[in-house]
Write a structure and sequence with these properties.
The protein is mostly helical and 186 residues long. The chain is built from 8 helices and 2 strands, in the order αααααααββα.
Length: 186
């Protein structure tokens, strides 16, 4: 009969997490060998971390839905819609200061909460399957965002949002990565 340490080691070696870690290691090694001049550089690693940070925040939210046995296909559409509403609110408010960014954040959260309330009502009260509801609200939120923007990028958001948060760094680490780490840890 194996002792506790052996059982733990067997569980770790047979776990899906270790398999994913090994796949990640193989991918990093492969691309590092293919492009040693570009891939294993700190700048590239920080860029990949920045790109992944928004998806990781969405995954944290989706984790709670999945843990409760649900499914939410609308998360990407709600993200886009909330971003459009936030951008329009910041442009409407004007200025490049913290209150303008706060207005955008509040409007984004309200927009996301409104779609969440629609999903929640239709799933819990109307008893429509979550797959159907969230598929529908994904299309509605993406379509609404497209109608609001008329398919044109919103380019006059405050520079402090783009420069300070989008591409800003704190002690060399991208701000988005720091914000994501705080959200994941919290």
């Amino acid at each position: 009969m194996p002792d506790g340490g052996t059982r733990r080691l067997s569980a770790i070696l047979g776990s899906q997490s270790l398999a994913l870690l090994l796949v990640l290691f193989v991918l990093v090694a492969f691309f590092s060998l293919m492009r040693p001049d570009a891939f294993p550089r700190i700048a590239n690693i920080l860029n990949m971390a920045t790109d992944a940070s928004i998806l990781l925040v969405l995954a944290v939210g989706g984790t709670y839905v999945i843990l409760t046995g649900g499914i939410d296909l609308s998360i990407n559409g709600v993200l886009v819609f909330s971003g459009v509403i936030a951008a329009h609110a910041m442009v409407w408010t004007g200025g490049d200061n913290p209150p303008t960014l706060l207005v955008g954040l509040v409007f984004a959260m309200l927009a996301g909460a409104a779609w969440g309330a629609v999903n929640g009502f239709l799933i819990a009260k109307a008893r429509i399957p979550a797959l159907i509801v969230t598929l529908g609200t994904m299309g509605m939120s993406l379509g609404s965002a497209l109608l609001i923007t008329r398919g044109i990028d919103i380019s006059d958001v405050p520079d402090s949002l783009v420069v300070g948060i989008g591409s800003g760094r704190l002690m060399g680490v991208p701000v988005l990565v720091i914000v994501t780490a705080v959200i994941v840890i919290a």
